[in-house]
Amino acid sequence: MNSKVSFSSVPRKPLVDAVVQQLQKKISSGDIAPGDKIPTEPELMEQFHVGRSTIREAVRVLVHAGLLEKKQGFGTYLKHVAAIQEPLDSRLRRAEIMEVYEVRQMMELEIARLAAQRRDENDLAAIKEHLDTRNQALEDKDIKTYIEADIRFHVAVSIASKNAVVIDLYKSLSVFVRETLATIFANPEGHNPQTEAHIQLYESIRDRNAEAAVASASRYLKGTLEELFGETS
């Protein structure tokens, strides 16, 4: 392994998740190359400032995910051909929130465009039904129903794209989005649900206006990112 690769100590949150996340980022960025041996358990324990059991569990997670392989008597290596076996929703849960929302932004803008071009009347009815449920739940301060209806609204928009791969990917992404919404509503006082932008998205899809649909999706995504992370570019 490249001797320049180093890790920082991790905070007192789920330690295994934090270790896995840092290892994953080194792998994704290429700092650990295919065939490289990762540091030994004692080296990782020292760099992360965690115990042996935490390191062993983190390595186990990445072995199970198909990224690392243990060679008895030699150590643990990054696979030359990483056959990722970990379910996507599990991978998303280990990602940083900003990373997932950047992916969401890339997906939803294209989904909005395709939905405006390809939707049918059944799609419109489903989107409108979930939008109405979402907005009524907001008025009623029924947070659980609001979150579920909001997710169903966006999934219905993805279904209108008529792209089966995109639909499956978005459904996996929505698992993480649901958890993020629940976190936001733990302190709902300052939350802006971007209702007008959601209504405009529906109307743009209804009117087959792809440009306006993309603009509406961009508006609510920008608002959510600002709420989560402050001002964004």
UniProtKB/TrEMBL annotation:
Record-annotated HTH gntR-type domain positions: 13-81
Keyword entries, A-Z: DNA-binding, Transcription, Transcription regulation
PROSITE patterns: HTH_GNTR
UniProt xrefs under InterPro entries: GntR_C, TF_FadR/GntR_C, Tscrpt_reg_HTH_GntR, WH-like_DNA-bd_sf, WH_DNA-bd_sf
Domain of life (superkingdom): Bacteria
UniProt xrefs under PANTHER family: REGULATORY PROTEIN GNTR HTH, TRANSCRIPTIONAL REGULATOR, GNTR FAMILY
Identification of the protein by name: FadR/GntR family transcriptional regulator
Organism: Cohnella cellulosilytica
Upper classification of the organism: Bacteria, Bacillati, Bacillota, Bacilli, Bacillales
